[in-house]
Amino acid sequence: TSLFEAVELAPRDPILGLNEQYNTDTHTHKVNLGVGVYYDDDGRIPLLKAVRKAELARVEAAAPRGYLPIEGLASYNNGVQTLLLGADSPLIAEGRVLTAQALGGTGALKIGADFLKQLLPQSKVVISNPSWENHRALFERANFTVETYPYYDAATHGLDFNAMLAALESLPAKTIVVLHACCHNPTGVDPSIEQWQQIAQAVKQADLVPFLDIAYQGFGDGLTEDAAVVRLFANLGIAMLISSSFSKSFSLYGERVGALTLIAGSQDEKSRVLSQLKRVIRTNYSNPPTHSGTVVSSVLNTPELYALWTEELAEMRNRIRAMRQQLVDNLKANGVKQNFDFVLAQRGMFSYSGLTADQVEKLRTDHGIYAVSSGRICVAALNSKNIDYVAQAIAKVLG
Ligand code: PMP
Which residues belong to the signal peptide in this entry (predicted)? Predict the structure, then answer.
């Protein structure tokens, strides 16, 4: 018999499974709102002009493709730190910040998880309820027990702040707390900055280990504004980890470009942490890719390209906002009585629309509109051509 005879079929990824179904759907006006990708008004994944310029320059320079250092390109890592903490960050000046280029936000979470497992073998990980569907699986794969803290309140379409805070306050010391620093996936619901201040104090008081995940910097209110929570935590003076991603903000999904950043107590501590983190990376994939690292680094470090990038990012952000507004307006225009104004308060690519699993199912079977069964829709997949169709269909399903 074959070695693999007894291998069981794993369940397919719920969201990627939805894509497969969408691709074979024969509805003429089908719309895929299940994805986690930004599409432009023509329904295409944009290739940013800033990226294109940096890529052309790189090809033109006929750059050799040697190995990068294990922790990646220094100019890239410095660029990441500046984006997260600000160019004038005293922590950077003190040499306490360590960044390793990683294979997307996912790769950053994974090397962070492996490093933490070594450091805190007894700790549990807590994630928000709900959270990005890969958080639990990823930390469980790294041999952590994963539990949740309250987050979303379906009754208010908002944050269950008191329950969240009480849960964090009661966690044992050194529990690893995964927090979405902006544009929460899947709900779109973020705490206010005042609430964040209380969350940060609770984390510090209870001696928890914050692991901030920021995959959508620039999609909320702006690059600097969206880093406010990272900077708030950094100023607490406690050790922390940050996973960040350029998949969305550079529209470079397939290039696997992200970073893990750690804030240590001192420069010496940082050097020792780096040496351990390098072992984790070395035994996983050795070193990160040159292409994406170089391209992003040259955009971050070339004033003209940086200016172009921030313009293009603002365009993406503003288009998503406009789609939120149009969705709410069009639902009203189609006679929907329920109040959908909460969609306007949500931030980032996603909205927990409040649609039930049955309604989501009806959207798919009757209209060829795909959403996640939780009711999560990707607002960044709406456009001027499909918004009327989607709003009409939702109105019918609610009707
Ligand atoms: N964290 C969150 C909250 C995400 O939504 C995502 C991606 N959808 C990631 C991490 C992973 O990002 P990447 O695609 O860069 O691996």
Answer: none
pLDDT in tens, 9-57: 998 887 878 888 999 999 999 999 998 999 999 999 999 999 999 999 9
Q: Which of 243, 250, 346 is nearest to 294 (CA)?
A: 250
CA distances from 189 to 157, 161, 392 (A): 8, 11, 25
For residues 112 and 259, give the distance between their C-alpha atoms in angstroms, rounded to a whole number.
10
Query: What Rg do the C-alpha atoms of the chain give, in angstroms?
Result: 21
Q: Please give the model's pTM, rounded to 2 decimal places.
A: 0.97
Specify the 3-state DSSP secondary structure of 43. coil
| Closest among 258, 231, 237 to 80, alpha carbons compared | 258
Can you tell me which atom of ligand 1 is nearest the CA of 247? 15
Q: Which atom of ligand 1 is nearest to the CA of 132?
A: 3
In the structure, which protein residues have their CB atom closer than 6 angstroms to any atom of ligand 1? Answer: 36, 104-106, 132, 180, 185, 213, 215, 245, 247, 258
Residue of 110, 213, 226, 309 marked active site: 213
Q: To test ligand 1's pocket by mutation, which of 180, 213, 296 has the most ligand atoms within 8 angstroms of CB?
A: 213
Q: What is the ipTM of this complex?
A: 0.99
